[in-house]
Amino acid sequence: MREEFFPTFDSGSVFVDPWLSGFESTFQVVLMGFFVCLACGVIGNFVVARRLALVGDAISHSLLPGIAIAFVFTSSHSLPAMLIGAAVAGVLTTVLIELIHRKSRVKPDAAIGIVFTTLFAVGVVVISIWLDNVHLDADCVLYGEIGLVPLRESFILSGANLGPLPIAIMGAVALLDILLVIVFYRVLLVTSFDAGLARSLGMPVNTTHYGLMIALALTIVAAFEAVGVVLVVAMLIFPAVTVGFFFERLPALLFGVAPLSLAYSLGGFHLARWLDCSIAGAMVVTAGALFVVAWFFGPKGGLIYRSRALGFLFATSKQKISPQIVG
Question: 84, 90, 312, 323: most buried, per Cβ within 10 A?
Fold first, then answer.
């Protein structure tokens, strides 16, 4: 018998049952997704503004050798060791991309491809040679599984249970990213949109750039167990480009990250509940759907808006030309 392409949709089992029968685990999964989207979206606005979206992809892949080599030297898969390894790998990726681009005829996109594929392959080799008998799951680094977050060990602070450790870490990283943006907002703004002006004002352009890359690397490694580094790349890009169809000023773009993060998290969770698929993947599908809506209806360059604007210009030009033809 032919199976249906989509399972039968039952609004009760999709939207109501998860919150009634398993409120705590459902809330934790949605909260983790929100923190991941929020942290990535805040940093992603500056990544997109600098036209470094592919660099985020490169860093996400280059974290694997950083984490693996950190484990080789420390014999520990603790979070501090992984964060240090990821930060070093992130900075090294950025330095190598710029070095290859500036000191050769290789174009930026080719330099990005060379660096991230090489470093990713180095990570695979390190794991296969030195860490073959160690539990360091490469699939977890790439794909993750946010649905397992409620099963992780709890974070205890002063006797209070603050929930699973990954949620506490991701929330702290999201808060840190927000604080860094608030403190260094002016420097990030100027260096992102006009590096020449920033240098003339005496701003540390290179230091700001590498600092942003370190924050990006830390955000990615904090999120990799939940959604995987491949899917984090989507969260770095979608909020900025989606809100960009409605607002142009950077403060509005940053404030738009939070509601979109909530929509991605809730929408992705319930979509995965309906389709019985990866929650992280469903979040990205939700982000893609919202992007399409913004692309069609956004007043700042959306397809419908542009069609109306072109129609108005055509009608106006036709009215101006007609009297000349008549005369």
Answer: 90
